[in-house]
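From the pipeline queue, job 12 of 40. The input is one protein chain; the requested action is below.

Action: predict structure.
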Amino acid sequence: MTVRTERVGSALLITIDRPEARNAVNAAVAQGLSNALDELENTPELRVGVLTGAGGTFSAGMDLKAALKGESPEIGGRGFGGLTEAELSKPLIAAVEGFAMGGGFEMALGCDLIVAAEDAKFGLPEVKRGLIAAGGGVVRLPQRIPHHLAMEMLLTGEPIDGRRAAELGLANRVVPNGETAAVALQLAEKIAENAPLALAAVKAVQRADDRWAAQRAESTKLMTTADVREGMTAFAERRAPQWTGR
């Protein structure tokens, strides 16, 4: 099995498990990740996903040997690794140890939060192979960090480490090596305390072309939900809310 899942409270820990190939993405990994995201989306008890890699590496990106044999690392409608173009309603956190290179970095960019190990390596070296970071890297990286710094990474193909990623605002947390999954699960627990419909609405607004219109529409829908009434009642009664997702 190239992708493992484990339910940890209300979080789904998704692990790419090809350490012998530095968790490079082949067709089996892409399908496994797509299946894991389906599990996250379709299980009401699960509120947040955490994506990581086995053996101290997040992912070295596309499996070039598999690609040369004709294998595709993409899933139709969901992009590279079955993730980079997936429209998820639930938050996803990347826990990055070791290398997040090429498509590996693009999968991390496709997540909502990034927890990085101090010595993690983030890079988009596609130009060194005559390619571009077509799994979302060319689009997303300049949206996440200053334009000229993003262009430096895209045009030189040179990586940055976890500390630099945090300095640029790319990583939410930078932690000692080996601790990213634990910290990501702590963040997931904190997120899961909040109303699931509200979390989904935040994500929907971010995906929209007209974000102001989407914000108005999502806010209007939320005001009719049982969870909004529960949130207000719980606040007035000074207790923790009991969300139903309705």
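Job complete. The two ends are 35 Å apart (CA to CA).
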